[in-house]
Prior knowledge:
Blueprint: E1 8-15, E2 21-26, E3 35-39, E4 45-49, E5 53-58, E6 82-89, E7 94-99, E8 110-113, E9 124-128, E10 132-141, H1 155-161
Amino acid sequence: MALSAxxxxxxxxxxxxxxxxxxxxxxxxxxxxxxxxxITPDGLLHRVPFELVKxxxxxxxxxxxxxxxxxxxxxxxxxxxxxxxxxxxKDGDLLDGILSHNLLDWPAAGYLITPPRAGSHRQRxxxxxxxxxxxxxxxxxxxxxxxTRVPVRTEQEETRRQLKMFD
Length: 167
């Protein structure tokens, strides 16, 4: 019998007026209606209300907790396709990120963004809506899949475009 792969993701939980804490979350079920469920490396289970959470930064290799202090904004226009957005938090901090073009990909509880200088120590960031005081769309990078679709041609248009070989 084969065991399934672990779905626990490592993350840094940023809370207002507190130090960031390393936690593990279940990728499929960490978001609840009003809170985030996480477990500390010591094995303590926490349910933190969205009002107390500033962000949840996913990583694969530990690094410094510098999401809001080191390069929180893009220095130039990003190259990753998506919506370049700037978030203003309740405590006045700013954070840029790339959102998906597809609005249906956005969880109702908040936003899942790709931060500036994404890498192994900051891959994706979840920002609860309750933590955000304002958002600003800075630009649209690339095109969505819907915008790049080829228009469907009718059968009559296709026959007009064909070469007349045997007339």
